[in-house]
Amino acid sequence: MSKTAILIGAPVQCGTGLGGCLMGPDALRIAGLAPALKSLGFTVKDKGNIAPEMASAVPHANPAVHHLAEVIGWTKALSACARNALADGHMPIFLGGDHSLAAGSVSGVTAHAAAQGREQFVLWLDAHPDFHTLDSTESGNLHGTPVAYFTGRDGFAAFPPLNAAVKEENICMMGIRSVDPAERAALEQSEIQVHDMRQIDEYGVAVLLRTFLDKVVAANGYLHVSLDVDFLTPEIAPAVGTTVPGGATFREAHLIMEMLHDSGMVTSLDIVELNPFLDERGRTATLMVDLVSSLMGKKVLDRPTRRF
Questions:
Q1: Which has the closest alpha carbon to 212: 112, 78, 94, 122?
Q2: What's the per-residue H, E or C state across 57-102?
Q3: Number of neighbours of residue 272 by Cβ within 10 angstroms
Q4: Of 126, 167, 263, 300, which is most buried with the most CB atoms under 10 A?
Q5: Measuring CA to CA, which residue among 144, 143, 153 is closest to residue 192?
Q6: In this structure, is the dihedral angle defined by the CA atoms of residues 151, 111, 77 and 1, taken in order, positive or negative?
Q7: Tens of pLDDT along the chain (308 residues)?
Q8: Do the Cβ atoms of 175 and 243 come closer than 8 Å?
Q9: Rounded to an integer, what distance in angstroms lies between the CA atom of residue 60 and that of residue 57?
Q10: Strands 120-125 and 222-228
Q11: What does the buried/exposed string (b/e) look like for 151-189 if buried means 16 or more CB atoms within 10 Å of the residue's CB?
């Protein structure tokens, strides 16, 4: 893990149907992300909030699809930022913004990994698999499509061509509990490891995650973590427009982050779907900063008592 973290604000909300995510990057800053990382010994460089590249309007046969040109523009801009950060030896942390930003962040880090002759792995912490194509989405919200894009599924001709796709067997999804029929059918034909909340209840997060991390270590791969607020149970993280009951608990989430730190394999990170408009006194933003701190090395014994 690089000791220099690059904060890249991506105020994207065109991939969802609800406003508010564009405030996510600044909420994470106000909640103290940079000071938290500095206290753990990291050099922090904040690039501010970037802007999407210009993209022409793109028609699509699926009438539900909306803001396609904007998402393509964000994908191009974020992919370039990801490649540049890793090429400089830094760890990019993408502050979202809705989950459509992962089309850019993951395609960018994967291009860098391929250029280094190494495997790219992705840990997808989310209530949803985001495995729709542009043809299969019924809502037209493109935050439900990034995994399909960066694994090279058909239907993304309008998007930037991939330098390299993420191999399906190199993806582990945890916390899944809301899957549309088209996604379920596609996942059944894929090699993606999908651990829904029932599996987490039966086996615990440690067993499931350790198996995946062992694979990353054995391959000496790059590991991208994409953390969606709705991975967490809404009782502790209300600031998300796609709440699904029964998500990961406070302790389960921190254990995952601590294990990721112990592995030493994480090379890039997304923090997505934080909608401050739906938060309670910054509660969710503060929790997300706390989780990132765990991933970056903060231990249980370091935690002060917090009053709310």
A1: 122
A2: CCCCCCCCCCCHHHHHHHHHHHHHHHHHHHHCCCEEEEEECCHHHH
A3: 31
A4: 126
A5: 153
A6: positive
A7: 889 999 999 999 998 988 899 999 999 999 999 999 999 999 999 999 999 998 888 889 999 999 999 999 999 999 999 999 999 999 999 999 999 999 999 999 999 999 999 999 999 999 999 999 999 999 999 999 999 999 999 999 999 999 999 999 999 999 999 999 999 999 999 999 999 999 999 999 999 999 999 999 999 999 999 999 999 999 999 999 888 999 999 999 999 999 999 999 999 999 999 999 999 999 999 999 999 999 999 986 565 665 54
A8: no
A9: 10
A10: parallel
A11: bebebbebbbebebbbbbebbbbbbbbbbbeebeebbee
DSSP letters of the chain?
--SEEEEEEE---TTSSSTTGGGHHHHHHHTTHHHHHHHTT-EEEEEEE--PPP------SSTT--SHHHHHHHHHHHHHHHHHHHHTT-EEEEEES-GGGHHHHHHHHHHHHHHTT--EEEEEESSS-----TTT-SS--GGG-HHHHHTT-SS-TTSPPPSSPPPGGGEEEEEE----HHHHHHHHTS--EEEEHHHHHHH-HHHHHHHHHHHHHHHT-EEEEEEEGGGB-TTT----TT--SS-B-HHHHHHHHHHHHHHT-EEEEEEE---GGG-STTHHHHHHHHHHHHHTT--GGGPPP---
Q: What is 163-179 written as a DSSP string? A: SSPPPGGGEEEEEE---
Q: Per the omega criterion (within 30 degrees of 0), is the bond before 73 cis? A: no
Q: Which residues pair with residue 94 across a beta bridge?
A: 8, 270
Contact yes or no for 110/162 (Cβ under 8 A): yes
- Whose tokens are 């909030």? That residue is 49
Both structure tokens of 150: 């960066």
**pTM for this model (two decimals):** 0.95
